[in-house]
TrEMBL record:
Residues covered by region (Disordered): 638-678
Domain of life: Bacteria
Lineage: Bacteria, Bacillati, Actinomycetota, Actinomycetes, Kitasatosporales
Bias (Polar residues) ranges: 646-660
Protein name: Aminotransferase
InterPro entries: 6-hairpin_glycosidase_sf, 6hp_glycosidase-like_sf, GDE_N_bis, MGH1-like_GH
Domain Mannosylglycerate hydrolase MGH1-like glycoside hydrolase: from-to ranges: 351-590
Key words, A-Z: Aminotransferase, Transferase
Metal-binding recorded as keyword: no
SUPFAM superfamilies named in the record: Six-hairpin glycosidases
Domain Putative glycogen debranching enzyme N-terminal: 9-203
Region forming the signal peptide: none
GO biological processes: carbohydrate metabolic process
């Protein structure tokens, strides 16, 4: 969200997008306003008039926290007749609720009466209906209702078993509730004020969505912003970015159920479009936040275990053991009009689940989640071999989903996986980054099998499979003419030769040997990749590059944070410092909040970062990125870069053939099916 005159409030699975005056107009498209929870708009109009006129904005909606906004208004006036009253609005979002205080302050020396009216409505639109693509969805048997209450009005929506409600109440109660003829209702008050006195209204909008879960259980131990240790002298920008990130992560938490019915607070992906559980986003957010914030990981692991697939469903790309990509709670998902109620279109969420399971145990010393989720981990490994592609292809592979996502790695826009000339990759796609996660997941799960589950035989099979995967990868993906890995292999096994930031993820996972990793790390900081704000998703100068393309030129802070951890892993401190400097300059231009993505224009072309028009803000993995940058800096300062022969940390085992192979796919030996067995 890049329009600065609107104010976004978010808390515990609910958000409100308000105009400069605090109003809601029912807008659709790139910036739909309203009160939203569980993928539905529960308040679509909220428009204030004073004495029959729309007030003038004196101070637009502002606010220091993520939950409260305020603005100052006045009825139209002029030099000869200044406004009789000034209006102060304060709006706060909590779980499922918007509370507004309207205070009218009289500017007159005599008593007076002011008519205040608020036009309200709830359209209960599903978020998928509000997007800019203007899709239309049939809703047979849908019925809307309005009921006047003693202190306000209730709006209802029913479609077969689906039932949602929004209740608007006021103190004092309105003097009248009027039918506008459009379905909306107008609440009217006649307020008396003493000379220079004031009058106040308190309004409460309570959303009652279909199927809402209960509250999260247990105490909320999420730390307050600003409680992290300092990054050190001269690192004030990083400290402020971390504080902003922690505050955003706190606001973005939503309730999600674990395997035993316990409600956890998990990181939602971002607002306005993705205030929901998304597997890859929650996993990366949790990984980037460790070790500073273990809470997201502790919540994410059981929530994703509870939603892992247990049977095959081609419409949702589900197979047993696969970790979910996206969970939706809206009407369209409920009735199967969009496939995202539980959608499994991600090739990487499953290995990342295993990576997080081990990393949480390593960082916290708490093996409880690993013990509790052993069955889920074994099912995830089984999926990687039997369904993910390790048995049949030797790699994790995905097929484009005609009804959902064409690409199923983190760069999931339709044109993201392409050759350097811009030609999209076709057929079964083998994403490079996903192979790094798979390699790391196999090794880490082997470690859990030894340390926690007491199964050394299975550990040995997983370690053998990981060695074979790494050897194949280094032979099949390395492009000697570029001294750089391919973005992917296409359906024919041809190397997809676009030079892309995904290579940074290979440093993070450790699948590259030290010599290649150092070459890649230095290459990613050259000018065609590094914009001055961060590393572009595609290097400039390629035909495929576009500075305003989501995944073919934009700069993503979380992508850069993953790279920063990879640079620290291989001891590339100078490159890490340069990357940190650019990202902190970017954060400073956004009030210390790293955006989801910015355009790829270089700092020498434009002295200010160019926003990406449809970016989410706040967004979870962008909020966690400063914490990863803090981790990377401390590792670099402590000399904790990975030694070239450290197989434990992934830089060792340099047996992969450095000489590249031809563009034709080298099949290698498929991993034995027995490696997946417990």
């Amino acid at each position: 969200m890049t329009v600065t005159h609107h104010r976004l409030l978010v808390h515990n699975g609910t958000f409100a997008l308000l105009g400069p005056s605090g109003d809601i107009t029912g807008a659709r498209g790139a910036l739909p306003d309203g009160l939203f929870t569980r993928d539905a708009r529960h308040l679509s109009r909220w428009q204030l008039t004073v004495d029959g006129t729309t007030p003038t904005v004196l101070v637009p909606t502002t606010g220091g926290s993520g939950e409260t906004a305020s603005c100052v208004l006045a009825p139209p006036g002029g030099r000869g007749e200044p406004p009789a009253v000034t209006v102060f609005r304060e709006q706060t979002v909590t779980a499922g609720t918007l509370v507004e205080r309207i205070r009218l302050v009289s500017n007159r020396a005599t008593s007076g009466r002011t008519m205040v009216a608020l036009t309200v409505d709830a359209d209960f639109a599903d978020q998928f209906e509000l997007r800019s693509d203007h899709r239309w969805y049939d809703k047979p048997h849908a019925v809307r209702s309005r009921e006047t209450l003693p202190d306000g009005v209730a709006f209802g929506y029913r479609r077969r078993e689906w039932h949602s409600r929004t209740v608007v109440s006021a103190e004092p109660a309105p003097d009248a509730v009027e039918d506008t003829g459009s379905g909306a209702r107008r609440l009217v008050w006649l307020l008396e004020s003493a000379p220079r006195g004031s009058a106040e209204l308190v309004l409460r909008v309570a959303a009652h969505p279909h199927g809402a879960p209960g509250p999260a259980t247990g105490s909320d131990d999420f730390p307050a912003a600003g409680t992290l240790p300092s990054a050190g002298p001269g690192m004030g920008s990083l400290d402020r970015a971390c504080a902003r990130g922690v505050a955003d992560l706190a606001a973005l938490r939503i309730p999600a159920e674990g395997p035993d019915g316990t409600i956890h607070r998990v990181p939602a992906a971002g607002v306005p479009w993705f205030l929901t559980l998304m597997g890859r986003h929650a996993l990366f957010t949790s990984l980037l936040a460790l070790p500073h914030l273990p809470q997201p990981a502790a919540a994410t692991l059981p929530a994703l275990a509870a939603t892992r697939a247990t049977q095959e469903d081609p419409a949702r790309i589900a197979q047993p053991g696969k970790i979910v990509h996206e969970v939706r709670h809206g009407e369209l998902a409920h009735f199967g009009q969009v496939p995202y109620a539980r959608y499994y279109g991600a090739v990487d969420s499953t290995p990342l689940f295993l990576v997080l399971l081990d990393e949480h145990a390593r960082v916290t010393g708490d093996t409880g989640p690993a013990r509790a989720l052993e069955g889920d981990a074994r099912a995830a490994v089984e999926w990687m071999f039997r369904h993910g592609g390790l048995d049949g292809y030797g790699y994790l592979v995905y097929h484009p989903d005609e009804g959902g996502l064409a690409n199923q790695s983190w760069k999931d826009s339709p044109d993201a996986i392409c050759f350097a000339d811009g030609t999209p990759a076709r057929g079964a796609i083998t994403s490079a980054a996903a192979q790094g996660y798979a390699w790391d997941a196999l090794r880490r799960t082997a470690g859990l099998a030894r340390r926690v589950w007491g199964d050394p035989g299975w550990a040995e099979r997983l370690e053998s499979a990981a060695r074979d995967l790494r050897e194949r990868f280094l032979a099949d993906f390395w492009m000697p003419e570029h001294d750089f890995p391919a973005l992917a292999l296409d359906g024919t096994g041809r190397r997809v030769d676009a030079l892309a930031s995904d290579a940074g993820h290979l440093l993070w996972s450790g699948i590259l040997d030290a010599e290649r990793a150092v070459a890649v790390g230095r290459r990613l900081l050259e000018p065609d990749f590094f914009s001055g704000w961060g590393v572009r998703t595609l290097a400039a100068g390629q035909d495929a590059y576009h500075p305003l393309a989501y995944h073919r030129g934009g700069v993503w802070p979380h992508d850069n944070a993953v790279l920063a951890l990879g640079l620290a892993r291989y001891g590339l401190r100078a490159e890490g410092d340069r990357l940190l400097s650019g990202l902190m300059a970017l954060a400073e231009r956004h009030h210390h909040r790293l955006p989801e993505v910015v355009a790829g224009y270089g700092r020498e072309e434009c002295p200010e970062p160019v926003p990406y028009p449809y970016a989410c803000s706040p967004q979870a993995w962008a909020a966690a990125a400063p914490l990863a940058l803090l981790t990377a800096r401390r590792a670099a300062e402590g000399g904790d870069g990975v030694a070239a022969d450290s197989s434990e940390n992934g830089a060792g085992d340099t047996s992969g053939n450095a000489a590249g192979q031809s563009g034709e796919r080298l099949a290698g030996n498929p991993v034995p099916e027995s490696a997946a067995a417990g």
